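Sample 1 of the test manifest.
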Amino acid sequence: MPLFDQLYNSAHWLTQNREEAEDLVQDTYAKALRGFSSFQPGTNFRAWMYRILRNTFLTSRAGLKATVPLEEDDDLAPPATVDTQTPEMVLIDRSQQELLRATIDELPIRFREILLLCEVEEMSYQEIADTIAVPIGTVMSRLSRARAALRAALRQKLQRA
Amino acid sequence: MNCDESRAQLDTYLDDELPAEKMRDLDGHVRSCPACAADVLARVQMKRSVKAAGTRYEPSAAFRAKIQKQIAARPQRSWKLGWLTTAAVLATVLIAGAVRMYVGQQNLRREQLYSEIADLHVATLGSANPVDVVSTDRHTVKPWFQGRVPFTFNLPELQGTDFTLVGGRVTYLEQTPGAHLIFQIRKHQISVFLFPENGADQVLGSPPGVERKQTFNVATWTQDGLRYIVFGDAAPDDIQRLSALLKAAAGT
């Protein structure tokens, strides 16, 4: 099944719960099968599937529970806001993977989502824009905020550790 | 380009999303500015770590089977005209997707392995004591590994060549113990990794000649149940010659 493992991984990150992730993936495939005629050949199949997953999540119990509005102030910011902050060598090695996971888990969901699409799924900005239905400028600004937030949270955790 | 301008674009640069011209400008700046180069390194490290950390959850086998059944069951239940066509188109897309995904995953696995190997190589050369057995004599280095790694191997005679043996250490790649040997040619140090073949290394294959991975030159093959990886910043020709010496020695 195409994208099955990736969709599941994303679903679990979004729902933070195995059962809900399974429900979400199941609904996503059901909707994809039903709505396949709405898929336009030649357009991005992966973005289409992720869009279904995401919309299903947003309207699910778990998604509504995650009350944080997905579209926030960053959509109003000028599109080319970029992160000028130096990472100050927040170097993290493999042994700190759990710490990094916990930090990603605690990020606001719109940051978590875009980081995963970019770094794990390695989607292009255009693909991310298609998936989360925002302009490319918003993708860039949100991504840069997400990275800054991740670094700041990580730095705090490392200092405490 | 100054550092502020550069820094503002680094993430986009590393995401490979800058227009070609800006890409070249930034490339030029990063090569000449140690501060920005360090910044790039930190960001690359972070990208890699997030990728590794983000690939976290796997569906259970039971759940996979359930969804497979769900997809397979659909056409029989449907009575709509044209559904079969849709199902056929979807199946084609699914199969094409699966093939693409498989190839993609293999590529990803390979890149992950090479990224770990690059880490091992760089971390070792950067450390104060890169090798645990310091010797240019293969008859000292080889026995040192006895009882330390679960296999034995032959090292080439280097007299009359421009390679020298620096020494070796025990290393691990995905929890598998192996031998990490360091050779030197002129100013370049070359890592030679030896691991028992265990299936996981199959994705590396045995490409002919020298490939470029993670900005290093690399040759890899399997011989007598061992996976050989020759890795370093030396010229492809040097990597090739060292590989040939190792292959010849293994055959003796």
